[in-house]
Amino acid sequence: MKERSAELAAFESQFKDVAGPAYGYALRLTQNRADAEDLLQTAALLAFRGYGTFIPGGNFKAWFFRILVHEYWGRHRAAQRRPSTVSFDDLPDLHIYSQASDAGLPTDGADPGALLIQKLGVDGVIEALDALPEEYRVVSTLYFMQDFTYQDIAAVLEIPIGTVRSRLHRGRKMLQRALWQAACDAGIVEPVEAGEGAT
Amino acid sequence: MRSVNRFTCEEAFRRLDDYLDRELSATEMELVREHLETCAACTREFTYEAGILHEVRRKLARVEVSPELLARIARQLEEAANEG
């Protein structure tokens, strides 16, 4: 009994540091507060029950996130298995940069790219991220929201680091296209007409 | 001392994401850095991308978890500990 209390205290001292980031990630995965809370709660219980498998001194955050993602996928198996139907042929590099340049917006000076995203606001960025296909959203959200290296992301998702790299690369391109579209829709920028040099 | 091997714009650009994420080897990081020192066009593109990246990350910064949820989880863990 005493041992179990000590284990609980040890678990809680580590869990408190990852609860916020894990909830933020759960919220982006589920896109729903009630589901995110339930996901975090279940993951916490599963992690505590499996705490004996955590190697002391290891990366608790990555270990906990792996449990959370497993639980999420367990609930959304269909989404996990559904292959993405996105064509990568029409995903240009530097989409926002080239569109901004074609639209005559500044591309140098004091952080023009950042200024554009600032104008879009939090909701615009979240909407663009949420719109990514599942396999890219899961990786990109880990990347943008958490302080994880590619290696950490590979460990959390149990996929090769090369897959992390390629999904992030494509995810970033898709995100840029979605962000630019959101900026156009919000009237922050004027859309560039086809044939005006858009890439 | 400068490196004999230098990256072209294309070689540097191919490493843009990994460079911004500091996922290149020390040698490659240095080669990209050297290229950027002498190429204004690439520097402009890299800086623009870094600005977007930084701002997206800032927008998605920490979400607060409610004290009620934390309390609920703590109660649940305590129950599990008592059961075990």
Q: Can you characterise this structure?
A:
The complex is a heterodimer of chains A (199) and B (84). Chain A is mainly alpha-helical and 199 residues long. In chain A, α1 (2-30) packs antiparallel against α2 and α6 crosses α9. Chain A has helices at residues 2-30, 33-49, 60-75, 77-81, 95-102, 112-130, 134-145, 150-157, 161-185. Chain B is mainly alpha-helical. Chain B has one domain (9-83). The model of chain B has no long low-confidence stretch (mean pLDDT 90). Chains A and B meet through α1, α2, α6, α7 and α9 of A and α4 and α5 of B.
Q: What order do the SSEs of chain B take from the amino end to the carboxyl end, as H and E?
A: HHHHH
What gap, in angstroms, lies between the N and C termini of chain A? Answer: 65 Å
Count the domains of chain A. 2
Radius of gyration of chain A: 20 Å
Structural class given helices, strands, pairing of chain A? mainly alpha
Concise account of the structure shown:
The complex is a heterodimer of chains A (199) and B (84). Chain A is built from nine helices and no strands.
Q: Which terms summarize this structure?
A:
heterodimer; A: 199 residues; mainly alpha; Rna Polymerase Sigma Factor, Chain: A; Arc Repressor Mutant, subunit A; 2 domains; 70% helix; B: 84 residues; 5 helices; 73% helix
Any chance you could write out the topology, listing elements then pairs?
The complex is a heterodimer of chains A (199) and B (84).
Chain A: H1 2-30, H2 33-49, H3 60-75, H4 77-81, H5 95-102, H6 112-130, H7 134-145, H8 150-157, H9 161-185
Helix pairs in contact in A: 1-2, 1-3, 1-7, 2-3, 3-8, 6-9, 7-9, 8-9
Chain B: H1 9-14, H2 16-20, H3 26-38, H4 40-59, H5 67-83
